[in-house]
Request: fold
Amino acid sequence: MADAKGSINLRIESTTRQLIDDAAAVLGKTRTEFMVESARRQAVDVLLDQRLFTLDSERYDAFMQALDNPPAPGPKLKALLRRTPAWQK
Reply:
């Protein structure tokens, strides 16, 4: 089954549009192809920045140690856990 397609309408300055058109032409792409590929690549990068991080082996070991041995709950965490969540009120 093919993906459903929609449209996105943008209002941009003519100089920005020309810049995009020039860059797309250099790559042999249409404006739409260029914009979709660029936006998709940027979206993936933003999401990965929120989910993926890399560490050298020393920092990885320290991170794993911290996960394996969390600190005891403090008074603020205990108070938070005693509160009724907003969605249950």
Q: What stands out?
A: The mean pLDDT is 93. Helices lie at 14-27, 31-51, 57-68, 75-82.
